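In this supplementary section we document a worked example of the pipeline. Step one takes a protein sequence of length 260 as its only input; no multiple sequence alignment statistics are reported here. Step two produces a three-dimensional model, which step three serialises into structure tokens for compact storage. The input and output of this example are shown verbatim.
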Amino acid sequence: MPREISPHAATAGWVALVGGGPGSSGLITARGLELLGQADVVVVDALAPRDLLEDIGPDTEVIDASKRRGRHVMSQEEIDALLVDLAGRGKGVVRLKGGDPYVLGRGGEEAAACRKAGVAVEVVPGITSAIAVPAAAGIPVTHRGLSRGFSVITAHADLGVLPQRRDHTLILLMGVSRLRDSVASLLEAGSDAATPAAIIERGYHPDQRVTTTELRCLADVAARYGVTAPAVIVIGDVVTLSPYWADRVVEVTRPANPAA
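The serialised model returned by step three reads:
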């Protein structure tokens, strides 16, 4: 049983929201691994490290609850109801997520649904991709003399309200599909067009790829190199600390109607 459960729990089953980390199975916490070994059912997210499932018991049921752009196996409401139903039938349930369940992972909604139903719930933090994936590319999100703070935000939010400061790092999650709009919003809000930027695809996987450029070129470079999700986008001077900065790609913007 999880150690941290609701004092109002009314069922014998339980739910643990477990952050699996940014990609490598070796980055899950010891507590998360322990609960995986105790689970009757694992409800797994699209970005959760799938090789963690190789070590669970042969009788453990695995349910795919992947949600990717344009393709949801089940809705968030259906996932909430599933967790409550399984625990209500006395099952020990691990909801395995990529990164951290409380960083743009809707873990708060799932925990609230469980508590409302009287289900014992524990939240096991994971290493968030927002910080770990930049680190995999040699990018610290803060650095003395370069960045005093950072914002982690989904690209679906209004980026124009963010601090437009060179000593503030911006980290975009779920941002590939809206990258051109995001760049336009930042430039319109006053961001320096020459701000260093990086896109890290499939962080901590064997096929990780890092592309560096400047903010003004970011969308064009991503399109040229066929950047795909999952990816973490970092915008700020800390990108210059990455060993990949030396290989940055800077597009030359040409006039729409060049002179003959």
